[in-house]
Amino acid sequence: MYVILDGEVKIPIFDALGRQKLVARLGKGDFFGEMALLTGDPRAADVIAVNPLRVAKINKQVYLALIRKYPSIARFLTEILAKRLSESDIMLSKTVGKYRLLDEIGRGGMSIVYSAYHPGLQRTVAVKMLDHQLVFDEEFATRFKNEGKIIASLKHPNIVEVYDMEQAYATYFIIMEYLEGTTLERIIDTHGKLDPEFARAVLIQTASALAYAHDKGIIHRDIKPSNIMVDKNNQVKLMDFGISRKDKDDPIDESDEIIGTAPYMAPEQIQQMPIDGRCDLYALGVTAYEMLTGRLPFDAADSLEILQMHLVKRPTHPKDINPNIPDDLAEFVMKSLEKKPDQRFPNLKEAQKFLARHHDQPKFVGKVITLSYAREDIKKVEAFVQELKSLGKKYPEIEFGFGEIQSKI
């Protein structure tokens, strides 16, 4: 890679047919050759000095030594690559393995997500790229690769499906199911408190996904609205198993760092105590609270203060904020947010059963009464119907409907 210290260069750019499309010009402070640093491939473009030029040459060995010592330096590579992949840059093939990258569709603290296309399968996918700053953090890179392996082993209608993993541009990529929808976080940000029955449906599906993962011995450890996608049919997809842990084979010890998102972390997770699936249940309880009230149970400007609240403070009852919350949903929230795991639901299967008790029940039920009578008794029947109508006035919450049928039998 070269950094221009003085002078100016021009870079003719050609299309696949060899026709010149444009000429890029770079000056002091600009750099070129960085993609060769990422891919290891020879530089494909000519760089022509316009006037006397002075550059600093940075070879790959020097660069790798620098970023291993100072990983934050690597972040600029991610920004450069993200810009190249997002722009109409005909110098870049924009392919990762068998997939052609299309558009950036999401960005988080550890990754950037692109839509991509597999021409052979004619399938659109999502491709998650690890931030270069984290590639050289061995623990984080291992955790990221672990996400692909974990989700690839999970086959559930409410868990995002992983198809493949690739390594390119000096980083890692996970090839995943492309989801058309929006995150629960965005839905809450847009609407505030949500319809209780919508919230119930989201909770039941998420609980189902977690119960399945827990049966496989996998704890998510970062349940929150931004990791829950909802499509146009209100189907839920649980994402980001990147910090997941095998609950049986991989116990937490005192040397482990605290991993998770402060507003959603269970007390035992914060205290680095042994954890099981009930820490995911706690986070789901926080998510339920947020859906039903439009706010978090514990919130503060300082993350450490939030963590302390999880340990010692009891949340305001959700019905005190939103009286329209059904009693059973409020009970689910408060039971899931108990400080001690033993006071919560024993597992996500039981939590799912509890939530499903009132799910899909019709809002209205009715009884049909059929009166069969001879024509000569019609006056008696009309008198009886009038009595029923009068009775209906005493019970305005009950709706009466009357009609007639005829039979030749």
Question: Can you tag this structure with a few keywords?
Answer:
Transferase(Phosphotransferase), domain 1; elongated; alpha+beta; 35% helix; 3-stranded antiparallel β-sheet; 17 strands; single chain; 14 helices; 3 domains; 409 residues; Phosphorylase Kinase, domain 1; Jelly Rolls
Concise synopsis of the structure shown:
The chain is an alpha+beta fold and 409 residues long. Helices cover 35% and strands 20% of the residues. It has helices at 34-39, 60-69, 75-86, 132-135, 138-152, 184-191, 196-215, 267-270, 278-293, 303-312, 318-321, 327-336, 348-356, 378-394; strands at 2-6, 9-14, 20-26, 31-32, 48-49, 54-57, 95-96, 99-107, 111-118, 123-130, 162-168, 171-177, 181-183, 218-219, 228-231, 236-238, 245-246.
Distance between the termini: 94 Å
- Count the helices. How many? 14
In terms of per-residue confidence, which ranges show pLDDT below 50 for 5 or more consecutive residues? 248-256
Shape from CA axes?
elongated
Total strands: 17
For the CA atoms, what is the radius of gyration? 30 Å
Largest sheet: spatial strand order: 7-8-9-10-12-11
So what's the CATH class of the largest domain? Mainly Alpha
The portion of residues assigned to helices is 25-40%
Query: What does the average pLDDT come to?
Result: 82
- CATH architecture level-2 label of the largest domain: Orthogonal Bundle
